[in-house]
Design brief:
By secondary structure, the protein is an alpha+beta fold. Helices cover 34% and strands 24% of the residues.
Length: 256
């Protein structure tokens, strides 16, 4: 475990160069708001695409863009395009708000579109997974998705929107949980598909980087060095660490 923690810390450090941290959703517990290092609505919108606030077609200010590209500024810090707020109430996970950028305002501030999407009804998410909520002091960010480190966390296990378990963890306990969860994830077909995609992307990058168009103007020495960079595919450890840091595997429910 100690060796794997050292690998994680190393990858955590160098990964700062390559990606952007995500703007988190929010969750209210006992009248206090926290950041949420999961996105429970992603699976919900995958099953109910007509309710997606950006692409579902229910938001009035997007109506005139049915045949055009919606002019929402692209942000690598919020790929999903919205910020959702949840609440734990009577041991049930509830969605209480969802905000998107107001494209009719020069400031592009976030505005609520909950009523446009859902009216006054309670939303049944049918969410099952382990919510990760930082409760301690911020330590460091790898700028990779939700790869933040804090001194303390709260984990909440949810089954079909119902709270099954809640526990406070230290940073070290949280890292052990993450490795244990990832070990279980590696047994799934989804993980195998992620590894396959990782190496397919590497092959695609190799083809682009070594293309005549890309190497035009480079010296023979520079081309030779570039070829050396792509001489061998990345080791499986690099693929694992990339997937570990970037993929949300909250649906892998384990004990902690």
């Amino acid at each position: 475990m100690k060796f794997r923690l050292l690998i994680f810390i190393f990858i955590f450090s160098i990964s700062k160069i390559f990606a952007t941290a995500q703007a988190p959703d929010k969750i209210i517990i006992d009248n206090k708001e926290y950041d949420l290092l999961n996105n429970p609505l992603e699976n919900y919108f995958a099953k109910n695409p007509e309710l997606d606030p950006i692409y579902g077609g229910k938001i009035k200010m997007f109506e005139k863009y049915k045949t055009e590209i919606i002019p929402i500024p692209f942000s690598t810090g919020n790929y999903r395009g919205y910020i959702a707020t949840f609440k734990i109430e009577n041991q049930i996970l509830k969605l209480i708000d969802i905000e998107i950028q107001n494209i009719e305002s020069e400031k592009r501030e976030y505005i609520s579109v909950f009523k446009e999407l859902f009216g006054d009804k309670n939303v049944t998410l049918n969410y099952s997974g382990i919510l990760v909520i930082p409760t301690g002091d911020f330590l460091e960010s790898a700028n990779f998705g939700y790869s933040y480190l804090f001194t303390e966390y709260r984990l909440i296990t949810i089954n079909n929107d119902k709270v099954l378990k809640s526990k406070e963890l230290s940073k070290d306990e949280y890292l052990k949980f993450k490795f244990k969860q990832f070990t279980e994830y590696k047994k799934t077909n989804q993980y195998k598909a992620e590894v396959k995609e990782y190496y397919e992307n590497w092959k695609s990058d190799k083809k682009i980087e070594l293309s005549k168009k890309n190497t035009k103007g480079l010296t023979k020495k520079e081309i030779s060095e570039l070829k050396k960079d792509f001489e061998n595919p990345p080791k499986i450890e690099l693929a694992e660490n990339f997937i570990f840091l970037t993929k949300n595997i909250d649906f892998i429910i384990i004990d902690y």
